[in-house]
Design a protein that fits this description.
CATH superfamily of the largest domain: Tetracycline Repressor, domain 2
Order of helices and strands: HHHHHHHHHHHH
CATH class of the largest domain: Mainly Alpha
Protein name: TetR/AcrR family transcriptional regulator
Number of domains: 2
Keywords: DNA-binding
Largest sheet: none
Radius of gyration: 18 Å
Pfam families: TetR_C_24, TetR_N
Organism: Fodinibacter luteus
CATH architecture of the largest domain: Orthogonal Bundle
Length: 214
């Protein structure tokens, strides 16, 4: 997993300071090392010593910035979810209609999970290893992401573009479809992230589009 890809996935474009907030450079190195180790070995099999070695530090050096590897997992998960939420909000705001908004957010979310599949697997599938407090915080962010999609669906129903019987369940299904990309995607598959974006965006619209009047 490249450093550039992780930084881009965790926060807006720019240098390290703007990319991950006001975080010391050493802490950024530790987060990058943790992301690499978790993606390669999984959370349970990764030790603090593994992370420290990848970051060029002693285990004590990791603890200066993060109390445990669980805290590191939480930071990666929190930042990844916040980044995804902000991307969806921005895409929605830029779209002229609910149809284009849904195409953009589901397509973009799917592409994010293809381009950052290693981090996506950490953020989405290592969730069970978080503490109860940290799980609740991440669940709160997931609810915000769900609500972005649900609001677009409601807008589409209001304008007559969509026909959706159960908005929350449909939002969950569309997001789950996008998230699953991280599970199966690899650089050598036949589909590029751009192709996935286009296909999943179009599929999302077809699934909820209201039938044309006869």
């Amino acid at each position: 997993m490249s450093e550039t890809a992780v930084l881009a996935a965790l926060a807006p474009e720019g240098g390290r300071q703007s990319a991950v907030g006001d975080v010391a450079d050493t802490a950024v190195r530790i987060m990058l090392a943790a992301a690499d180790a978790f993606a390669e070995r999984g959370f349970h099999a990764t030790t603090t010593r593994d992370i420290a070695s990848r970051a060029g530090l002693s285990p004590a050096g990791v603890y200066v910035h993060f109390a445990s590897k669980e805290v590191l997992l939480f930071e990666l998960s929190r930042r990844g979810h916040e980044r995804a939420r902000d991307l969806l909000v921005a895409a929605t705001a830029a779209a002229p209609t609910p149809t284009e908004a849904l195409r953009a957010i589901v397509g973009g979310f799917s592409r994010w999970h293809a381009e950052h599949y290693g981090l996506g697997r950490i953020v989405q599938f290592e969730f069970r290893h978080l503490s109860a407090e940290h799980r609740d915080a991440v669940l709160g962010l997931r609810k915000e992401i769900d609500e972005v999609v649900a609001d677009v669906l409601r807008d589409g129903v209001s304008t007559g573009e969509f026909e959706v019987a159960d908005v929350p369940a449909t939002a969950l299904a569309l997001l789950s479809m996008a998230i699953d990309v991280a599970r199966w995607y690899a650089p050598d598959v036949r589909y590029t992230p751009e192709a996935i974006e286009a296909a999943y965006g179009d599929l999302a619209v077809r699934l909820v589009r209201a039938p044309s009047p006869r």
